[in-house]
Specification:
Blueprint: H1 19-30, E1 37-39, H2 44-56, E2 60-63, E3 79-81, H3 86-99, E4 104-110, H4 113-128, E5 132-139, H5 147-151, E6 160-164, H6 167-176, E7 186-188, H7 194-201, E8 208-209, H8 221-234, H9 240-256
Length: 257
């Protein structure tokens, strides 16, 4: 009979470069004789370098939150993800859009690796479905004004806009589209907290489709039971990270037997 003990370690989210701290945490856990598995880390800058340490020391590493494909590219024996990567998510968004009858797309993306990966995967699925990308625009990760980019789309004929960027930029881009009367639906390329994004975007926008792994409003019995138990324990509703972490712990517990 195995034993599951929770050992909490965290990396300060305010760190500009969390990699050294993440590796230090990984080495600390690897040095303990009673730790054989780790669930985390929250950001790719932490998870990817830490996973190397866990693999080198024979620890199992379960990743429930990081969607970067590079985390699982090393053919490690002990690194597993319980969440799809950015490419898988973007391809599903393309299939979803096809099911809604959208056939012509514009892609707006930040110049970051994850956004590029999502845009490429989306384009690949779009081509396989026989649909078309009629325009693409990119912008720097720090850009905050998108009026010029959105206004430039007026000359194109399209059914929907794919946005591949961080949440703040995604919300800003969609929000600012109201100023130029862009009414085409938006497709968000990566996983997002739909409620948080809706608050940041504000009311009276064009339809926005957001991929999620956990729907807290679902009436499925397992979701209702999880939500009720979480609220009784912590006094608030669970989000997607809570659900992903819960599933990872249960998976590990089941593996222990």
């Amino acid at each position: 009979q195995g034993r599951l003990e929770l050992v909490r370690r965290a990396v300060d989210p305010a760190l500009a470069d969390p990699r050294p701290a993440a590796v230090a945490v990984a080495r600390e856990l690897a040095g303990r004789g009673d730790v054989f598995a780790v669930i985390g880390h929250h950001r790719p800058e932490e998870a990817i370098p830490a996973s190397i340490t866990y693999e080198q020391h024979g620890l199992i590493f379960l990743n429930p939150t990081v969607t970067r494909r590079t985390l699982n590219e090393h053919a490690f024996l002990g690194v597993f993800s319980t969440i799809p990567n950015d490419g898988v998510i973007a391809r599903q968004v393309a299939a979803f859009a096809f099911g809604l009858g959208y056939r012509r797309f514009v892609v707006l993306r930040s110049r970051e690796d994850f956004a590029h990966e999502a845009a490429v995967a989306f384009a690949d699925r779009v081509a396989r479905l026989g649909t078309t990308i009629v325009g693409e625009r990119s912008f720097t990760p720090g850009r905050a004004s998108f009026h010029e980019i959105v206004a430039d789309l007026g000359a194109l004929r399209f059914d929907a806009v794919l946005v591949a960027a961080g949440r703040a930029q995604t919300a800003g881009l969609i929000r600012q589209s109201r100023g130029v009367q862009l009414e085409a639906p938006f497709l968000v390329a990566g996983l997002a907290d739909a409620a948080a994004l809706a608050r940041e975007v504000g009311p009276a926008t064009a339809p926005v489709a957001v991929p999620v792994l956990f729907n807290p409003e679902s009436s499925a019995p397992e979701t209702v039971g999880f939500r009720r138990g979480f609220e009784e324990r912590y006094g608030r509703a669970p989000d997607a990270h809570a659900a992903q972490g819960y599933d990872a712990v249960r998976l590990l517990a089941a593996a222990i037997g």
